[in-house]
Amino acid sequence: MHNENKLDKLFQKLVDNNISEKELDCLMELINSSDPDEFKNGILAKHWENVKTGNLAIKKRIKGDSEVLLQKILYKIEDIEKKKKVKTFFPQPNIGFWSGIAATFLLLVGIYFYNQNTVEISNTPITIENDPNSGVITLQLSNGTVETISENGERKITTAHGNLVASQQGNTLKYATAEAEDKLVYNTLNIPFGRQFDLVLSDGTKVKLNSGSSIKYPVRFLKGQDRKVFLKGEAYFDVTTDKAHPFIVNADEMNIRVLGTQFNLSFYAEDEDISTVLVEGAVVLYKEGADVNTNSSSQLIPGQRAAWNKVNNTMTIKEVDTNIYTAWKDGYLLFKALPFYTIRSKLERHFNITIEDRSGRLANQIYTATFRNETIEEILEAFKEDTHFEYIHEGSKITILDTNINLKKMPMKTN
């Protein structure tokens, strides 16, 4: 009975758009552990009755808020469906159960928005700060409005006059090739933790964005000017050659200037270094505001990595195995002689989780491993074979416990 009341309250919060991230995780877990038939004939039936009678206890909100919330629901359902490959949550006949929940919520939201007698829809442009923990991919347009993007969706983005700006096909957003405009108009694409997405700029440059990343770029580049974009997070660039218009990526204090090349750039707020790894072509690095033609700039050749230390303001260049830094774009988590505290940050971004290490001994443990498609539980179990620890997984948080168990050294087994 307690769980039933809690389910009812949390589901109403979901409909009201009042639910927090923690409460949403709790709701999904309660639904997941409930009997599907009882849930459909209980909670869902109750809310459907409210729809039919017009007794909708729904608080006012703007359309963008519910679009973001709905996308969170769909992403969480997608994660649950993926986990079914490892663990069966429901008997086979209930395979469409989660889809039914998403459809019901969508219907409730739809009735809410399109009933003009009870709803006042805001015409104010929606502004959403980039929140990498939101679980939602967002595209901020030049007028400040924000649209949510489903990785499986299809759409066209047009101007007020109906001219095509960009089109989405699944996991790729591609901007149309057109004559350059007389002023720069920017869009910003935000990728949350746990997601990746592809972007094709109007000049044909391909950008693969890693989780927790944000890129600001012109809808059209201007003739006679550099092609400049702004990155936070991590991305792999395959730049279209255009000698008359150098391509520049700004990452905080650093600019990376290229004509046509492939390179990986990583710049997360929690990292000390701005990392540039050159795969093909040539790039020149220089500080924002400096002249690229002075001796203060540094040039890379393929196979080199430049690390700009934001704390010490120093640049280190050395030869590396580029695959270590670019494997993520092909779906791999590749760790080579990395301390656990660095691996932990990568896992948090990749799975959109938080990991609290209370063990007091794992932070500086060094690991080498390669994973692909494994769950976070499978990855942690692999690490445990090298250095034993215990952990608790609750919702989107993992706590590594302080068990005072002696370290045991043995070769690590990975795929």
Automatic annotation (TrEMBL):
Sample GO molecular function, one term: sigma factor antagonist activity
Pfam families: FecR (PF04773), FecR_C (PF16344)
Transmembrane helix found in the keyword field: yes
Domain of life: Bacteria
Record-annotated FecR protein domain positions: 193-283
Transmembrane segments: 95-114
Limits of the Protein FecR C-terminal domain: 332-400
Alphabetized UniProt keyword annotations: Membrane, Transmembrane, Transmembrane helix
Coiled coil spans: none
Stated name of the protein: FecR family protein
